[in-house]
Amino acid sequence: MTSRRALLTGAGAVLAAHLTGCQSAGAKTPPSAATSPPGRPVMPATPSRSSRPLRFVVGSDGHLGDPKAPGDPYPAFVKTVNALHAQASLDFVVVNGDITQGGVKRQQQVKGVLAGLKMPYFVVPGNHDELTRAQWRKVWRAEPNLVERFGDRSIILANTSNSAGDYLCAKRSWLQEALHDQASQQDVLVFMHITPDDWTKFGVDCPDIRKVLSQTPNLRAVFNGHDHDQDGQMTSAGVDYFFDAHLGGHWGTDYVGFRLSSLDGNTLTTQMVRLDGTLLPETSLSW
């Protein structure tokens, strides 16, 4: 969308004192946006049909079982997200891949911790999860590719890996159909573990996927994990891609955290949150 702008607003803040004791480190400055010529169909601005904001969290790359990063980040994640929810209600959480370092047992362990969340949550496969489709469905009671609706907003969760841990593009036919089926929705958000562009060290060049996304007028943003050292925003053909650093693992940004976002009318506001609850600066997009 050619009218979209990214605005840096606000400043960091800290949650209530009861969050002390969670893991944290220093903040990292988000990378500069990579841009390419706009190519999306322009969707006329219309009044919001939704009566309230859609608030959500996306976190990825907990890597439970990483031998170089002992410990479980998920109890702190659940504690901090629930504290945010107590301040202002969250509609859902997405855990966007690399939940563990492989194996059904660790997935079940994380599922037990995530059961403590006070709001619905959804999971996306990552290349380190290494579950077959049957194993994924058995553990999570959900498909690796999934669409969920929240009134006139939709979220699309797209799988970008397999049980061998390969880096893959999302399945174009499935994604195209999912986006088409949500064409009457006011807003669509897409979540996939691996970014469909090689602009990051571990991204995958998926021109067909980028084209499908760029041709979706009601798409507001794409959320990626996988690249632990990325916690900012990049833009391609009018589509905004956000990265959420990492919840765990042994490399990446010099802090661990996740992304908090709010979709309200024609504005998406988003910011990183350290695992101890410290809020980093906001970015807002309008259309």
How are the SSEs ordered, and which strands pair?
Blueprint: E1 5-9, E2 54-59, H1 74-87, E3 92-96, H2 104-114, E4 121-124, H3 133-140, E5 146-150, E6 153-158, H4 172-181, E7 187-192, H5 207-214, E8 219-224, E9 233-236, E10 239-243, E11 257-264, E12 267-274, E13 279-286
Parallel strand pairs: 2-3, 3-4, 6-7, 7-8, 8-10
Antiparallel strand pairs: 1-13, 2-11, 5-6, 9-10, 11-12, 12-13
CATH superfamily annotation: Metallo-dependent phosphatases
From the N-terminal CA to the C-terminal CA, the straight-line distance is 7 Å
The 3D shape can be described as globular
What structural class do the secondary elements suggest?
alpha/beta
> What is the averaged pLDDT score?
87
Task: Walk me through what this model shows.
18% of the residues lie in helices and 26% in strands. The protein is an alpha/beta fold and 287 residues long. It has one domain: Metallo-dependent phosphatases (Purple Acid Phosphatase, chain A, domain 2), CATH 3.60.21.10. The strands form 2 sheets. It has a 7-stranded mixed β-sheet, with no helix packed on it. It has a 6-stranded mixed β-sheet with strand order 5-6-7-8-10-9, with helices on one face. The longest helix has 14 residues, at 74-87. It is globular and about 45 Å long.
